[in-house]
UniProtKB/TrEMBL annotation:
The keyword Iron applies. This is Peptide deformylase. Keywords: Hydrolase, Iron, Metal-binding, Protein biosynthesis. One of its GO terms (biological process) is translation. The active site is at residue 137. It comes from the Bacteria. NCBIfam families: pept_deformyl, PRK00150.1-3. Its cofactor is Fe(2+). Coiled coil: none annotated. It catalyses: N-terminal N-formyl-L-methionyl-[peptide] + H2O = N-terminal L-methionyl-[peptide] + formate. PANTHER family: PEPTIDE DEFORMYLASE. The gene is def. It comes from Prosthecodimorpha hirschii. One of its GO terms (molecular function) is metal ion binding. It is an enzyme of class 3 (hydrolase).
């Protein structure tokens, strides 16, 4: 396993739709393992392949609280098949938008269909933090960031901050 570099906004790859994975093979399993290591090191609770520059519909998630009780989820080609009318709010952050957090409203419960790391079709019903995390990561696969759920004013403010940081980095000033 190896730790991968995380893509940060305003990188345009984060706004692109990821490609469907044709089959779960050794290279996809290696990607899942590398993504999990990267996610834990960050630290984070979810990571989409696009966030490490791979434009495939692959996600790792682990919302467990304790390191010795980890419960990683590996999702290939995940799709939300239903969502509740009931909404919930969570303060979300994103490894691709470091040190920025904002409250986002999403469906409280979701049903997700995906392939596991062995290529088997699975379905999962989730609520609470896991439901929020699933929606956040699946959004990434469709080129949607959590800040896209905020007001235009807040979204523009965040983008300007990161665009400025990117310019300074390019000039060797950051």
């Amino acid at each position: 396993m190896s730790k991968l570099d995380i893509v940060i906004i305003p990188d345009q790859r984060l706004k692109q739709k990821s490609e469907v994975v044709a089959s779960v093979d050794g290279s996809i399993r290696r990607l899942l393992d590398d993504m999990l290591e990267t996610m834990y090191a960050a630290p984070g609770i979810g990571l989409a392949a696009v966030q490490v520059g791979v434009m495939q519909r692959v996600v790792t998630i682990d919302v467990s609280k304790e390191e010795d009780k980890r419960e990683p989820l590996f999702l290939v080609n995940p799709e939300i098949v239903w969502s509740s009318e009931e909404l919930s709010t969570y303060e979300e952050g994103c490894l691709s938008i470091p040190d920025y957090y904002e409250v986002v409203e999403r469906p409280a419960k979701v049903g997700v269909r995906y392939l596991d790391r062995h290529g088997e079709t699975r379905e999962l019903e989730a609520e609470g933090l896991l439901a929020t995390c699933l929606q956040h990561e699946i959004d990434h696969l469709d080129g949607v960031l959590f800040i896209d759920h905020l007001s235009k004013l807040k979204r523009d403010r965040v983008m300007k901050k990161f665009q400025k940081q990117a310019r300074l980095k390019e000039q060797g000033l950051a």
